[in-house]
Specification:
This protein is mainly α. 71% of the residues lie in helices and 1% in strands. It has a two-stranded antiparallel ribbon. Strand 1 and strand 2 form a beta hairpin. Helix 3 runs antiparallel to helix 11 and helix 3 crosses helix 13. The longest helix is centred in the first third of the chain and has 48 residues. The radius of gyration is 26 Å and the shape is flat.
């Protein structure tokens, strides 16, 4: 056999081996690709199409173009109430979760005894089902006979209405969010424990106190984890639904998942964007309008995430970063 024939045979063998590897990779990726296409790409394309139609789930969709988007931005007054309530979550609830988780993580990291017990106590609420924990909080903060107001009454303090008050409904939901912040707490604890000890010791030898060591050493070191917590918190706030839905349903006298009156009780104070989207799609059967709302929420979530990531270059520090 000539050298040219041998070279040709080797090239064919390499091509066959290359295609076999590609087929193997394609087979391994097939379950993910099928799931991604079925549960993300297809619903996304479907939502984009239905957002351009008038669709009530019962009759065939009718093409209306950008009428749903025009109505959303110019004629629907409730949409702005939902947007303001959701912005409240981003401005107040997300920082409260991050600061509380970071503060508790710092305390646990400095503790010398009972670290395992403290870690377990603060993490256990994150394991509770969302509906069950919300029901428990509604019971605890029941203005008539809840344990919290009962204790306040024994102390001579008139308890507020909590979930039944338009001014306190969102802060009470924030307490629930802070109580169940165990997942973020564990991530922060791992990050704090991973701070290089020699950096803290060097700062201490230079005369830096606890606050300065935290501000100039610990915080820059864990800033990537802080960025992760902020991004995830903002995305979760934009999708905040279950707790508000259950709390509003039960606080106005119904059962979990049973809406006796308008969603967003009391007085639309808990009418968050996902709640209003659900109301439009599955209560009023305006699925075309709900699809338009979902597309806007997707664009806003992507834009806010990219904005946070872009601005994070100013305050997030990575190991080995030369900036």
């Amino acid at each position: 056999m000539s050298s040219e024939a041998v070279a040709t045979a080797r090239r064919r063998a390499r091509r066959r081996s290359h295609w076999r590897r590609r087929r193997t990779v394609a087979l391994l990726l097939a379950p993910w690709a099928i799931g991604f296409a079925a549960f993300f790409v297809y619903p996304l394309i479907g939502s984009a199409y239905y957002s351009m139609t008038h669709y009530d789930l019962l009759s065939p969709p009718q093409w209306v173009g950008f009428a749903n988007y025009k109505f959303m931005f110019t004629e629907d007054p409730q949409i702005w109430t939902a947007v303001k309530n959701t912005l409240w979550l981003i401005v107040f609830m997300v920082p409260a979760q991050v600061f509380f988780a970071l503060g508790v993580a710092m305390l646990i990291a400095r503790a010398r005894r009972g670290v395992g017990v403290m870690r377990t106590i603060f993490y256990l609420p994150a394991l509770a089902p969302i509906v069950a924990s919300t029901l428990a909080f509604v019971y605890l903060f029941n203005p008539a006979n809840g344990p919290v107001n009962t204790i306040l009454s024994a102390l001579g303090i008139e308890g507020p209405l909590w979930f039944n008050s338009p001014a306190l409904a969102k802060p009470t939901l924030t307490l629930l969010a802070v109580w169940s912040v165990g997942n973020t707490l564990i991530i922060f604890l791992a990050a704090v424990l991973d701070v290089p000890a020699h950096l803290l010791e060097s700062a201490e030898l230079d005369g830096a106190g606890r606050w300065r060591r935290f501000w100039h050493v610990t915080l820059p070191t864990i800033s990537p984890v802080l960025l992760f917590a902020v991004v995830i918190g903002v995305i979760d706030a934009m999708q905040y639904f279950t707790q508000a839905y259950v709390a509003a349903s039960v606080a106005q006298g119904g059962q979990a998942g049973e809406s006796l009156g308008a969603l967003g009780y009391p007085l639309d104070s808990t009418l968050f964007y996902p709640i209003y989207l659900y109301e439009q799609g599955f209560t009023r059967f305006n699925m075309g309008y709900a699809s338009a709302m979902s597309m806007v929420m997707l664009v806003v979530a992507l834009s806010v995430t990219l904005l946070i990531l872009r601005n994070s270059r100013r305050w997030v520090h990575y190991q080995g970063d030369s900036r």
